[in-house]
Every structure is written in structure tokens, then in C-alpha cells.
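Quick start: what a row looks like.
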Amino acid sequence: MSTENHDHSDPGPKRVRLTVAIIACDEADRIGEAIESARFADEVVVVDGGSRDDTVAVAKALGARVVVLDWPGHVVQKQRATELASHDWVFALDADERIPPALAEEICVVLADPGVWAGFTVPRRTWWMGAAVESGTWWPDRRVRLFARGRARWGGEDPHDHVILRGPSGALKVPLEHHAYRNLAEHLATIARYARIQANGLRRQGRRARWWDWGLRPGAHFAKALLLKGGWRDGVRGVCLAWLGAAHVALKWGLLALEQPGPESR
């Protein structure tokens, strides 16, 4: 990606070359800002999972290399995007995330001399209902996003993917900006969809839901988010997010219980 005429035009010290890899599906209204935030990189590759809107056209118009594939799930799709990168170092970005200029500068600095690091964690600041969440389980939400692809692979259980490094990790300081949901309706729909995916995954693993899974885990999540993680500092926003997180946990284990044979399903 060219760095001309953009806020990130100064790449800083000479560095190893970088690909920003984005997976997307039906993100025409958001993919543009994600790509624009990544213009400091040498390449942006977008792996589209079969969008029915203008995601592909928008990404191509902004100079991204676009590859259209099927949708096998989050973990496999992110691994595909990593393998499609032209450069050895990759920054994994979601379509609803933005790399602020200060983070772009920090990335350029560490890539000037990556040293022994196989990758770097990045804090992620999520915005919800018009404001940033500063506590609870959503902050600092550190994740490995910058990594040497030859020393990393994607793992986890859909929809919650993560990078597994073969080697030590460093830590970046500037947060990635995350605009998770367009509105509350989308948040609620995502909870339902992700709970279904997770319940199916647990079933494939041979797991069974016990009474304490659907009876106690939701309350434990609420207490963790609001008290142990300090979600109360975000006021009513923190309370709402703690309840929504607890509802997600209850639905995941409840679906598993309802669809398995035995007394736990009653």
C-alpha cells in the first residue's frame, strides 16, 4: 500500500515489510476505514467470505489485494489470510477495527528491529453505545495481532480465535480501536449466533452441560466482569455489558443442555 497523502505517510525507521491481513463478509460500510487505517503497511490483503454487498468493490478501490473464498469459520479463515500475506510480518485486523496513527508509528518502530520476538500483543479499546469501555472484561483485552507468520499459527475454538506463537512475545502500548457493533440489535444477534457456534463446538468435543454450567457460570461471569474486573467503573454501561456477557454464557451452556439427552436438558 502506498503511504503517500495519508496521515500515516511517515513510516519511521527502516523496517521489515508488513502485510495487514483482514477477513471480511458484508462489511462494505466499515471495510474502508479499516483499510485506510492500514495504509502505512506495505500491503493490505482482504479475504472476503462471500459478501453480498459491495465489500469487495470498496476494498479493491482502496488498493487492497482481495481474495474471495468460502467461509469455513474464524480460525481457518484467519489462517488463510495469514498464508496469503506477501510479507513475513503480519498484522491481523478485523473489519470493525482501526489502527490509530500512534499505533502505526509504534508498529514501525518495533519492526525496525524485531529482535527475538515472534510477535507482539496489542491492547484493544472497544467502543459500545457511543463511548469507549475502560474496564471490565473488555479492557485491556490484549491479543497477539502483530507476528512473524513463520512462527505463528491461528488456534482457538470458533468464534474465538487467537494466535499461537512459537517464541517469545513483546507488548505494544498504543491500543487498537474496536467498533464492535453497529447497534444493540446487532450485539444481541451476535450473542445468539456465537452462543450457537460455541454450543455446537462443545458438543463436537463430547462435552455435556451440568447444572452448574448453566446455573452458576452466568453469575460467575457477571461478578467477574462487574467486580473483579472493575466493570462498575463504566457505570450503567459496565452493568449492561456484565449482564450481556452473563446472558451469552447462559445461552451457550443452556443450548447445550437443552439439546443433550438426560436430566440436564430439562
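That is the whole record. Residues 4 and 59 are 18 Å apart (CA to CA). The radius of gyration is 20 Å.
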